[in-house]
Amino acid sequence: MKSRSFLLALLIIALASLVPVVFRGNDYVLNLFVVAGVYAIVVMGLGILLGFAGQLSLAQAAFFGIGAYTSAFLTTRVSWNFWEALPVAVLASALVALAVGYPSLRQLSGHYLALATIGFGIIAQLVLINWKAFSNGSDGITGIPAPAIGSYTFDSYGAYFYIVLAFVVLTAYITARLKATRVGRAMHAIRENEMAANAMGIDATKYKILAFVLAGAYAGLAGSLLAHSIKFISPDSYSFDQSVVFLVMLILGGSSSIGGAILGAVILTFLPEVLRPLKNSYIMVYGAAVIAMIIFMPQGLAGLFGVLKRRFARA
Amino acid sequence: MPFDPVANVQLLINGLAIGSIYALVALGFVLIYNAVGVVNFAQGDFVMLPSYVAISFLVPQVAVFGTMMHWQLPVIVAYAVVLVLMVGFGLLFNLIAYHPLRDRGWMPVVISTIGVSIFLRNFAQLTWGSQPLGFPSLFSAETIDFSGLHVRPQDILIIAVTAVLIAFQYFLFERTSLGKQMRATAQDRTTARLLGIRVSRIVAITFVYSVLLGTISGFLVSPIFSVTKEMGGLIALKAFAASIVGGFGSIPGAIIGGLAIGVVETFGGFYVSAAYTDAIAFVILIAVLLFRPQGLFGERVAEKA
């Protein structure tokens, strides 16, 4: 079983690495794949928080924005390169997540935590709009450079996709390892029953804060990655609505499944594009689809596949 | 800046007016939360949708699906028609977004209300277009002067209607059988069911009541802000903040929290920073969550996840 999921992962990576070849010249589709990969990283991070540790954040767009802006600021104003800026962007998001998570998670859980994170997300977006010295206000930051290795610049969407793919694989690996370790099991215990976990000697608050910081770091990494692909960022991309989209991606995929998180991100990135022939009504259909999915697929796509697999095994 | 008593009274009235709107919407949140244990993320759209529907009946130039409508009903008739339509909407909302998920914990319901919100906002855009629409006021826009004090009649109307609604709510909950059943359901559903209360019906009524509170808030606030598909979003988020500040689950808390947030943000926007007006509610929210999570009137400390 273990080796089978390893082989499946290899197969998926192999197929994914063919994407720039298959869609060569089709920048529209390649850009969507880049975006989907970036979102998958955010959603995996949210999966650690919600799926593993059972805590809900509606501020992931804010951490996504902090990563994007840190990276954009360092590369356009301080003329660092991408590889120097990226780790700092991750660190900045993680530190802000620590500053927000440390006081909040000692006090709050459930709805209350969700509401506190909404408050933080809105404040963060207002700061991005108004702190012009750092963010250039509503005009946003333009001319964010593409990453380079030696003399090769990852300028095209096809080339950039490989960078994103590498980070998706890296974060998926870290997440899978985490799930299998003592830390992952401690988080799982907290999700199932926090009081019992505490009684077993697990420092629940510590692990919840760790999950929150990891989710922030993943979002920061993703934010930086997307900023260097689209090369222009502005505060309206980092709204509460975007945080909601990340949550819906996770729930659709199945909140404690890594494959589910990635699949949820990919499907919901492409779904609006597929529905585009419906013209203006496509987002409406998207909303209705979210309701239908939550009613009819309780465990998300990961759960649906589980059911299908069992059915086939029986037949 | 020299202290100007007249200006401060004016700010206070503005703050109480917008705070009344937050209070009504917060009340809608709290009633649903008490009845079913879930925060409804479509609460803001309970304000937006009826405002658009009312506009279609009131304003001759408004196009519905790109077609000009010439209903132009008298205001009172239009309001009544919209209220009746929204009763239907409340029942439908309960039937689709809550009822199928009622035994699955709070997260799926939260997601489905988010789905409803996405649906409604884009339904509104498709039906009424993306331009902000002006909503006719019952009064002229001119202010009334009391010895140098300029007061918008709409502000007074908002405060007065809110006071009447709160009195009605008190009467409903304390004096009628229906209100007592609603309170019993909120307190303990299992026991309420054992006592012969039809819990599903009470829950449906709670949703309808919450929608109607949103509808009336929409009638009251739309003449001040213009009607857009996003209009409910920020109002709802601040009403959230208000209900936490007051103590989540507490009805007087929601009302006082709403008024307090309205007043503080109006003064803050004037004296501290206009750019950060919208952040003030959330700064208060986070401060309250960290230092007094049970809120001003709440009893429960942080909920069990």
Secondary-structure topology with pairs:
The complex is a heterodimer of chains A (315) and B (305).
Chain A lengths: L1 H21 L4 H26 L7 H17 L5 H26 L2 H21 L1 H4 L12 E2 L2 E2 L3 H24 L1 H11 L1 H6 L4 H27 L9 H14 L4 H17 L7 H15 L3 H15 L1
Antiparallel strand pairs in A: 1-2
Helix pairs in contact in A: 1-7, 2-7, 2-10, 2-11, 2-12, 3-4, 3-5, 3-10, 4-10, 7-8, 8-10, 11-12, 11-14
Chain B lengths: L4 H32 L8 H14 L4 E2 L2 E2 L6 H24 L7 H23 L15 E3 L2 E3 L1 H23 L1 H11 L1 H6 L4 H23 L9 H16 L4 H21 L5 H15 L14
Antiparallel strand pairs in B: 1-2, 3-4
Helix pairs in contact in B: 1-5, 1-6, 1-8, 1-9, 1-10, 2-3, 2-4, 2-8, 2-9, 3-8, 5-6, 6-8, 9-10, 9-11, 10-11
State the main characteristics:
heterodimer; A: 315 residues; mainly alpha; two-stranded antiparallel ribbon; 14 helices; 2 strands; B: 305 residues; ABC transporter involved in vitamin B12 uptake, BtuC; two-stranded antiparallel sheet; 11 helices; 4 strands; globular; disordered C terminus
What do you see in this structure?
With about 325 residues, chain A is an all-alpha fold. Chain A has a domain at about 30-240. Chain A is about 75% helix and about 0% strand. Chain A has helices spanning about 1-20, 25-50, 60-75, 80-105, 110-130, 130-135, 155-180, 180-190, 195-200, 205-230, 240-255, 260-275, 280-295, 300-315; strands spanning about 150, 150-155. A two-stranded antiparallel sheet of chain A has the order 1-2. In chain A, helix 1 runs antiparallel to helix 7 (about 155-180) and helix 3 (about 60-75) packs across helix 10. The mean pLDDT of chain A is about 90. In chain B, the strands form two sheets. Chain B has a two-stranded antiparallel sheet with strand order 1-2. A two-stranded antiparallel ribbon of chain B has the order 3-4. In chain B, helix 1 packs parallel to helix 5 and helix 10 crosses helix 11 (about 275-290). The chains are: A mainly alpha (about 325), B mainly alpha (about 300). The interface between A and B is large, with 42 and 47 residues.
